[in-house]
């Protein structure tokens, strides 16, 4: 399965689109200081990292990439809380964006748990055919 077909990729892309729409409405200073950084993290560190995780054969490297993904997701969530506390985004927008980030976080955590379980079972790498498999649904709540 190519990265663009993964549920976590689709949800993260949808989050990026909605975040872009909301950051367009921030005042110039806030958009320049916070909005730009959030968008760069979302595009470069979240969307691009999903592609990197999905292309790795090494399960350990996939786990490392997912750890970085989760850290960057938490960073974006912290930015959103600051914007919400400063009343730069509405409560409705914050709730909508939080729904995205919570769902993405659950998917990333489930993916990581699946990889850890696979590693514990003695598998170190995926074959070419296994690289594009979807995360088993039992791992994502």
Folded structure, characterized:
- This protein has helices spanning 7-23, 28-55, 59-85, 91-120.
- With 141 residues, the protein is an all-alpha fold.
- It has a single domain (3-139), classed as 23S rRNA-intervening sequence (de novo design (two linked rop proteins)).
- Helix 1 packs antiparallel against helix 4 (91-120), helix 2 (28-55) runs antiparallel to helix 3 and helix 3 runs antiparallel to helix 4.
- It starts with 6 loop residues before the first helix and ends in a 21-residue tail after the last helix.
- Approximately how much helix is present in the residues? over 70%
The poorly predicted ranges are none
Number of beta strands: 0
Rg (C-alpha, Å): 16 Å
The H-and-E topology, N to C, reads as HHHH
Classify the fold: give the CATH topology.
Answer: de novo design (two linked rop proteins)
Cα shape: elongated
CATH architecture: Up-down Bundle
CATH homologous superfamily caption: 23S rRNA-intervening sequence
Helix count from the secondary structure assignment: 4
Largest sheet: none
Overall pLDDT metric: 90
Strand content: under 5%
User: Structural class, from secondary structure content?
Assistant: mainly alpha
Domain count: the total is 1
> What is the straight-line distance between the termini?
21 Å
């Amino acid at each position: 399965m190519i990265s663009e077909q993964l549920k976590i990729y689709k949800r993260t892309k949808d989050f990026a689109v909605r975040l872009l729409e909301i950051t367009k409405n921030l005042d110039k200073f806030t958009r320049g200081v916070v909005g730009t950084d959030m968008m760069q993290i979302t595009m470069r560190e979240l969307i691009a990292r999903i592609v990197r995780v999905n292309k790795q054969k090494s399960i350990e490297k996939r786990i490392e990439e997912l750890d970085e993904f989760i850290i960057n997701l938490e960073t974006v969530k912290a930015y959103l809380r600051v914007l919400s506390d400063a009343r730069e985004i509405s409560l409705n927008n914050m709730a909508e964006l939080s729904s995205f980030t919570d769902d993405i976080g659950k998917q990333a955590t489930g993916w990581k748990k699946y990889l850890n379980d696979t590693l514990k079972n003695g598998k170190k790498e995926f074959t070419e055919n296994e690289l594009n498999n979807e995360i088993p649904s039992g791992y994502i709540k």
